[in-house]
Amino acid sequence: MTVLPRILVLNGPNLQLLGTRKPDIYGTRSLADVEDRARALAGELGLAVECRQSNHEGELVDWIGDAPGSFVGIVLNAGAYTHTSVAIRDAIEGVGLPTIEVHISNVYAREEFRHRSLIAPVCLGQICGLGTPGYELALRALAAYLKQIGPAQTEGPTE
Ligand code: DQA
Fold first, then answer.
1. pTM of the prediction?
2. pLDDT tens across 102-126, in order?
3. Which of 89, 92, 98, 154 has the greatest number of CB atoms lying within 10 Å of its CB?
């Protein structure tokens, strides 16, 4: 059996509405479609992904806290919690897993309250404003980073 390093792809509040919510801003792809594409790309990159979505801050915090030992990295679109959640930021910082923040829309071109991310400073990087392909770009970036830091850091949590 092939063992693949596992990536946790997390989506926060209202992202279950992808495809129907403000398609002019978030596009017409459903979350299931975005997740399918992430899974397909992960296979090509030699990774496995597990995709989860929650509207509840505590659930996201729990999933991040439990990630070490099961996952080697995180792709995170925390939705509106991006701009408010000290708890999610602390969870990412606490577990220390390489995390890439994704925003489908260009938050810097929108309302001022979206300009600040509490999470970005504890992430490896941020992909923003490139639509739903941003998740795939994040996976590619994480794959390149994991390759660069070497096998020691990617050992252990595999599928
Ligand atoms: C978002 C941007 C956030 O400001 C917003 O609350 C979302 C989606 C994005 O992907 O562009 O829910 O994270």
1. 0.94
2. 999 999 999 999 999 999 999 999 9
3. 92
